[in-house]
Amino acid sequence: MAGPLRPPIAASYPVPMRIAVLTGGGDCPGLNAVIRAVVRKGERHYTDTVLGSRDGWRGLLDRDLVRLSVADLRGTLHRGGTVIGTTRINPFTVEEGVNRVFDTVAAERIDAVIAIGGEGTLSCTNELHKLGLPVVGVPKTIDNDIGVTERTFGFDTAVTIATEAIDRLHTTAESHNRVMVVEVMGRHVGHIATWAGIAGGATRTLIPEVPFDIDEVCHSLTRRHLAGRYASIVVVAEGAKPAPGTMDIPDETFDEYGHVRLGGIADRVADEIEERTGFETRVTVLGHVQRGGTPTALDRVLSSRFGIAAIDAVHDGLYGSMVALKDDHIITVPLEEAVKDLKFVQPELWSVARQFFS
Ligand code: F6P
User: Fold this and answer.
1) 127 alpha carbon to ligand 1 midpoint, in Å?
2) Span 18-153+295-338 CATH architecture
3) Predicted structure pTM score
4) Disulfide check for 262: which of 30, 238, 330, 341 has CB 3.0–4.6 Å away?
5) Alpha-carbon span 193 to 198, nearest angstrom
6) Any idea which fold 156-291 has?
7) Which tens digits make up the pLDDT trace of 183-227?
């Protein structure tokens, strides 16, 4: 005989949503891993429909969206770049931009947006949230300069690439008794330069946070070379600046979105070193090599964690927040907090780097 009827177990079923995801700003290794995680949990767990906004905010401005499924994202975990494209287009600087974004959201019955970007994209995301857009942010940038989160994905990959390049430059520098100046990315902050400089055994590292005195750099290189060691590696963040009055640098130029176009400081530093010390000096600008290609395992894991946390935050209604890493846990923080201040190189880390300068 059948036993007594049991009351049904109370179950809460997730409410399916239509979610748009976008990637804005410069690309970064790990973007596809975030998108894949959002789609995986969205489709499999929440039975959501996920739409990719092509080329950052442009897709929402022009109603250019693409359906993203688990099947579509296969094979993308280890791929650099972003399968949905990216631009620096900002709806606030485009005619009728904000209205067009809200029109697309209404017409496509989008319940929420996940915006993956750096400081520019996240600031814009925050402003759109204040106007009523239900949005969650995910921090990305190889520069690792977003406040509140301890790390952004892409940074570990960039540091790994830069360190490998420095390792290679050591042997050629030693063979020719040369000074090698290596320019790495980092427009406002010197995280990549500092980490790669420590990891690669740089003779000197120049970062935006600490204006440098070229005279002092040249004296220390001369001391080092007189002491019998010839090869030197000088790592320069692209945004590094000389102390006022110590060295002339070219005027800044801007891209179509008003961002300063950097690059070139390494050439100036190398010219000064060669002229002032007489040591043969060569320049390597790593540029976009640091941003391309496959993400490291660490970045893939962080991206996957951020993606899962972002879709959960959407379903928890945590709009106006950004996912972040704190004490190796993923948390959510108000976007307002996240975009307030850039994260600079910590004095403690900088003092470690300095110990190894010649
Ligand atoms: O913000 C990330 C970043 O990689 C910076 O380090 C660099 O200055 C900038 O993007 C380069 O951007 P673009 O792709 O426009 O040359």
Assistant:
1) 22
2) 3-Layer(aba) Sandwich (3.40)
3) 0.93
4) 238
5) 8
6) Rossmann fold (3.40.50)
7) 999 999 999 999 999 999 999 999 999 999 999 999 999 999 888
